[in-house]
Amino acid sequence: MIVDLRSDTVTQPSAEMKNAMLHAIVGDDVLGDDPTVIQLEELVANRFGHEAALFCPSGTMTNQIAIKVYTNAPGEVICDELAHIYRYEGGGMAFNSGVSNRLIHGDRGRFTLEQLQAEVNPDDVHFPPTQLVALENTCNKGGGCYWKMSEIERIATFCRTEGIPIHLDGARLYNALVAQKTSEAEMGKHFDSISLCLSKGLGAPVGSLLTGTKDFIKKAKRIRKIFGGGMRQAGYLAAAGIYALDNNVERLEIDHANAKKIEKVLHAMSFVKSMKPVDTNIVIFTLQDDINLIDYLAKLEQKGIKAVSMGAQTVRFVTHLGIGEAEIEYLLKTL
Known about the structure:
The chain is an alpha/beta fold.
């Protein structure tokens, strides 16, 4: 048996999703006439209470487009030190937009209003102007933790008062929404833009959306073209996204429950030194100092269990729709 826990990006389209893709009505999205892409963009924009949306190949692209639209060099983006846009997007902020980072040392990728206020630059030639605040929900490197809505509201209110745009990297946003039983509209009203990934827990093969105002999306579409992100008959991929949004959201609770089962077993294992709290579908644990990380991952692989490292002595498991009851039982027994 193969139990692939490397990421929720390894999900495979179901037969029903493939059928939706096969029968999609398509056009040329770069020319703006792919009806299925238009349907997906309108669906997501409406759900989050935003005016418009843009379909892109990846979440990295949607994040980088947003940063490019909001900023101009010299400028600075404030985010947590664990944020995906800082750690895992290839230095894109500097390369694409010529802006620097101001990092906040928060709690597993989340920071408070007070921490943010302390990092906003004054109007002084010695500092680049603060041009964007970015949050990640859930935070990958933070172990899949999600932001409290009360703190999001406080931060968003401050940003609007100060005239600083606020962007949400929602790579696993639906995990956060399901976990705290929050609606898309409630989340969407606090952000100027949202990046929403379809190819993780929602199970689509490709694609992310960027939402915002009509003017913002008009600018974003130009940047998408420059980044090489324009796709032609993209409706086949958009159809998978529509199916995912209509069918694969509520079942995220299963992934969360499976992650909690793993957490319970690992807490009792002598080879585990520590663990991050499990809030959604990500399990991150640290091995005892006398255990070789590479050997441990290799032994898991020999048993058909695939995982990745998240740093020194640290292992990550991510549950998803490809992990059913049989896979969980096998995994727990093997651990």
